TrEMBL record:
Species whose genome carries this gene: Amycolatopsis rifamycinica
Keywords from the named record: Membrane, Transmembrane, Transmembrane helix
UniProt protein name: Membrane protein
InterPro entries per UniProt: DUF2231_TM
Transmembrane segments: 58-79, 85-106, 118-138, 150-171
Occurrences of domain DUF2231 (ranges): 55-176
């Protein structure tokens, strides 16, 4: 009987993700952001940026480049003599992150209240990750490789937390599922 109870009890990371859904303190800023984005998201260019032509959102595709670059930068940080490769990968992530941000904001406009809470937290976590990677790049450029590695590791941890929230939004909360079929 004890085992059945353990299987039915959500793990702490899952409880943390679902707790964000209940964070009513996020409602005012989340609603204000959605309101500002609605007009642009409903426009023809907004429909294009939201992936209407493809049949599903573009944001999940766009995030693979900065995330992949930053994961690879962390791997190169573990290899001797690969400091320049790691620095360039951090830069690649920084150069491609704005596209992922813009595409995510266009998807945010249609979210309901609970999903907006998660979406806002997802965006905030990823903004911190981008800032940490920016600081990592600056440190690496100044020759402060150890500092750059530490900031990069912190950035990757924040990007991972932000990604977990994005996954929760997409899969556990079903944001965007079947929306595209109805829009055809």
């Amino acid at each position: 009987m004890q085992r059945a109870h353990l299987r039915d009890t959500p793990a702490p990371p899952h409880r943390a993700l679902t707790a964000v859904e209940d964070a009513k303190a996020l409602d005012a800023p989340a609603a204000a952001l959605a309101q500002r984005l609605r007009g642009a998201a409903a426009s023809a260019p907004g429909g294009f940026l939201r992936g209407r032509w493809l049949g599903h959102p573009l944001h999940p595709l766009a995030v693979t480049v900065p995330i992949g670059a930053w994961v690879c930068s962390a791997l190169f940080d573990l290899l001797p003599g690969q400091d320049e490769a790691a620095r360039r990968l951090v830069a690649t992530g920084l150069l491609t992150a704005p596209a992922a941000v813009v595409l995510g904001l266009f998807d945010y406009a249609d979210l309901d209240e609970r999903r907006r809470r998660v979406g806002l937290t997802h965006a905030a976590g990823n903004a911190v990750a981008i800032a940490l990677f920016g600081a990592s790049y600056a440190a690496r450029t100044r020759g402060q490789v150890t500092r750059g590695r530490v900031l990069g590791a912190l950035g990757l941890a924040m990007a991972s937390a932000g990604g977990a929230l994005g996954g929760h939004l997409a899969y556990a909360q079903g944001a965007g599922f079947f929306r595209w079929q109805a829009a055809r």
